[in-house]
Each structure stands twice: as C-alpha cells, then as structure tokens.
Amino acid sequence: MRYVRICFQIAILYLIYWVGTLIQGLLHTSIPGSIIGMTLLFILLQTKIIKEKWLGDGAQFLLKFLALLFVPATVGIMDYLSFFKGKGFITVAIVLVSTFLVMITSSVVGEKIAARKQQKQGKNIGEGFGA
Prior knowledge:
Shape: extended
Oligomer: single chain
C-alpha cells in the first residue's frame, strides 16, 4: 500500500509539472515549464491547498534517487566536450566558487532560521510561566 501511495504522490507532482509546462506553452514565456510548476507547487503548499504530508513520501522517494536522475544530463555533456577544451580550469573554478557560495549562503540562512525558531520557542515557553 505504501508503494501505491508513493506512486500516486509522484503522479501528483508530475501533474503539477505538466500544468507548468502547459502554462508555459499557452503563454509562450521564456520561463521553463518546470519552474512554473515548482512555483505553482510552492503557492499550493503555502496556501495549504495541498498539504505537505500529501506529497511527502513521493518527494522523499524522488530525492533519494536524485543523483540517478542527473545521469542523462551528465552523459549529454559528452556531446559538448569540444566546448570545454581549454576552458576546463575556468569551468572547474566556477563550479568550486559557486558551490562554496551556495554552501555559505545555505548555512547562514539555516542558522538564522534555527535561531529564529529557537527564539520563538523560548518566547512561547516563557509566556507559560510568567504573570
């Protein structure tokens, strides 16, 4: 039964992606349909139209195999090896710098969210014991 639920949740996520590509096709925008779909999913989750627990297991399943989903894109780069000739060092440097920036930004944002959450919990606990 768990696998049926996961398949159903992945189907819902795919449906949201499909709606995003449909919107992109109808509006002829330069924004990819996948980005429109993610934005749509974000809005649906934030407005509580779709609850996180309704899609959680399917999303975790996809995240578990995320590296495998990048294999076709990585293999596709092989067609453009001539583009990377002579620019390999620059490409590696850009990847390292951007990875480092993402890690720093993620850690700073994570610490701020954790501190805010801890401060909020401390405030709620203190209210129970006060006057």
